[in-house]
Amino acid sequence: MGEAVREPRQDRSRATRGRLLAAAVDCLAEVGWTGSTVSVVAERAGVSRGAAQHHFPTREDLFTAAIAYVTDERVEFLRAALPTLPPGPDRTRFVVDAIGEMYAGKLFKAALQLWVAAASDEQLRVQVLPLEARVGREAHQLTVEALGADESHPGVREAVQATLDLARGLGLANLLTDDTKRRHRVLAEWTTALSAKLATLA
Amino acid sequence: MGEAVREPRQDRSRATRGRLLAAAVDCLAEVGWTGSTVSVVAERAGVSRGAAQHHFPTREDLFTAAIAYVTDERVEFLRAALPTLPPGPDRTRFVVDAIGEMYAGKLFKAALQLWVAAASDEQLRVQVLPLEARVGREAHQLTVEALGADESHPGVREAVQATLDLARGLGLANLLTDDTKRRHRVLAEWTTALSAKLATLA
């Protein structure tokens, strides 16, 4: 077969894969790990079960790939938006708010289901560990860039990490109820402390 | 039957209940929500299944009661230790470290399993919501007392909440790997910010 035929097939395959991955994140966030199977995701994505299993032989493969894929998409999108960030003191507030919203959303809810399932499932844990490390690294690197933080100064690396750990804790508090108002107040207080930290070093 | 007979029976019943609740927290933390049933907990506690079901008719009853019971025990223990806290600037460091350790431990891992299961189980969610509110309130009140924080000052309430949200985020980061070293560094940085906040208002 020539290029003209092969190319569209690869595109179709890539599109199918992307639909499955996006549906897998939706599924995890909505029905949790126990109810999330390759079949359920295939149906949600409008893909045959056979095609889904061709792309992802196991449930663990599908859901870890889904969190990785949607995280990469999100990081790429946010990195592209970095040049549009406001300058000056508004920047820290803007970045902290954006991080808070990210961990209050669907991707975090889905990842939380996977992490917590992995705590008592050794097979899943083996696949989630490198994913957790990668997602954590990407979130940290993006936050450093967004804040324009210089990690060579003492305490700056820890302050950036605290921002992300705080956002994850707030994400957890937003799991069962809408915690938006309280989250904004807590993040406003943290922004003051973080701005002071970054300013003394500028 | 006279008092002399009834009293020991009530004590036995109370002891059985306590054993079931402690075993339920261990079970949740170790095997997760899916593998945690009344039967599994009864066996672990050395109690007959019938006796367990007499105390806790449903799985939801048993595990929400278990988190409530162990939280109350912990809060009571920590409140009793308040008079032994060091005075002066060491106090904030001590309290922040203690909170960090609490959310790195078994009770938080168990509660996390229950909260995350409740996100996609409406029946469980109805029972977890008031429990989450109560546990959050108790943790907040105890932290205010431990820090000797005056919440009438602007931002102090939010700084106390941020301490707990940060500790929950760090607890999450400690779920699949031992994150102790990084947690200590992040909490040390947070202690500096929190001490500054509390000191400007003293």
UniProtKB/TrEMBL annotation, chains A, B:
Superkingdom field: Bacteria
Chain ranges of the HTH tetR-type domain: 14-74
Pfam families: TetR_N (PF00440)
GO molecular function: DNA-binding transcription factor activity; transcription cis-regulatory region binding
PROSITE patterns referenced in this protein's UniProt entry, alphabetically: HTH_TETR_2
DNA-binding region(s) from the entry: 37-56
SUPFAM superfamilies hit by this protein: Homeodomain-like
UniProt KW DNA repair keyword: no
The protein's name in its UniProt record: TetR family transcriptional regulator
Family matches, as InterPro entries: Homeodomain-like_sf (IPR009057), HTH-type_TetR-like_transc_reg (IPR050109), HTH_TetR (IPR001647)
Nucleotidyltransferase listed as a keyword: no
Assigned keywords, A-Z: DNA-binding
Originating species: Actinokineospora cianjurensis
